Amino acid sequence: QLQLQESGPGLVKPSETLSLTCTVSGGSISSSSYYWGWIRQPPGKGLEWIGSIYYSGSTYYNPSLKSRVTISVDTSKNQFSLKLSSVTAADTAVYYCARHVYDILTGYYIPWDYWGQGTLVTVSS
Amino acid sequence: EIVLTQSPATLSLSPGERATLSCRASQSVSSYLAWYQQKPGQAPRLLIYDASNRATGIPARFSGSGSGTDFTLTISSLEPEDFAVYYCQQRSNWPPSFTFGQGTRLEIK
Predict the structure, then answer these.
(1) Is B109 helix (H, G, I), strand (E, B) or coil?
(2) Which string of DSSP letters, residue by residue, matches B8-64?
(3) Residue A97, exposed/middle/buried by CB under 10 A (0-12, 13-18, 19+)?
């Protein structure tokens, strides 16, 4: 059974960089057609896609966050990571890592089917 | 950017009743529409993808319909565990980009 687990600091100061890692177990992050991503949810609010990465390193970001986001992958550790720079209180949220499936050749697509439990990151001095 | 609008914001029903949740897109998303269920303190759970396909392990009482800009999630007979928040989500074709609706809270009447 595929499992995803977020890790990282729960408190970040304003203007600093938020850094989180997602560890994938029960499957390979390098599997063809699997994309890995970050989605966040401010307290009491809805869901916002941050960005996605393929094991090759190809990245896709939410245009509204693109200037501040970097997502990277470490296939040797079966992990991928999120960095969000210049954070403000508006970046306080539960951050989820998740997987979706997309085969470029066939168009086969499954949206976010596996999720981590989420980790709350608070931006405060 | 495609905006998804869900209605109603809150739906109050009793167990055994039928629930109908709506999601409207600001422009056509073809059939690239998914539905998720989220319970307090939990990650969202994929219910429906490509507008009408049930995800693995999802009970048959959940069904999805629609295409283009108007979509519906129907729960045929509510079970106590179905009371939660439901989100719709669309994806662009390529490059991949995703947006979510604001959610519908399904509460016990």
Answers:
(1) coil
(2) -SEEEE-TTS-EEEEEEESS--TT-EEEEEE-TTS--EEEEETTTEEPTT--TTEEE
(3) buried
Q: Is B87's CB within 8 Å of A110's CB?
A: no
Mean pLDDT of A39-64: 96
What is the SS3 assignment for B82? helix
Tokens for B32?
Answer: 């690239």
CB B84 within 8 A of CB B106: yes
Q: What distance in Å separates the CA atoms of residue B57 and residue B49, rounded to the nearest whole number? A: 13
With CA atoms as reference, the chain B residue closest to A51 would be B97
Residue A57 is encoded by which pair of tokens? 């390193």
Partners of residue B49 in chain A, C-beta under 8 Å: 109-111
**What is the tens place of the pLDDT at every residue in A11-38?**
999 999 999 999 999 999 999 999 999 9
Q: Which one has a higher pLDDT value, A38 or B92?
A: A38
